[in-house]
Amino acid sequence: MSLGFRMVGQQAILRAARTLLAAEPWLMSAVLPDAAAMLGWTVTRHKPDRPALGAFLDADTGLGPKSAFISLDAESRVQEISLNITEELSGSSPEADAFKQDTFAAAAAALTGVYGRPSEQRPGEKPQLWWRRDTTTLRLVTQYDSIALQLSPNKLLAGEDRP
């Protein structure tokens, strides 16, 4: 991880998880400006006339103006929240892939230490770990260009469930 790639530390990962889980009560009901204010984040890119595109936010983690993303419905209500724990990595390289694997493993260990064993593990090229709760799921996900934590309502994940 000394190749200049940036990630947040273990305590910041746990703080990020707590921040996302604190959004459970208003997920799917709050509108973007209220959600940004409750999270303490700054909206950096959003087209109010096209809410389906979602919004990028600066989560003040040191990872830049697109460190978070909020998916919105047609009325601009928050559907899902994604918070990067690494900077966006442009392109793919063995070094970037190794960095993402190391970051995923470190985050998985930290989250498992606090939230217990994940309810679901999805191995593969883009692994995911899910901690399912009553109405939401906290997910650690590998994306093409980053590692992120996501909070999703279970009813939106119904199509992603495995038999």
Automatic annotation (TrEMBL):
InterPro entries: DUF6301. It comes from the Bacteria. This is DUF6301 family protein. It comes from Actinoplanes oblitus.
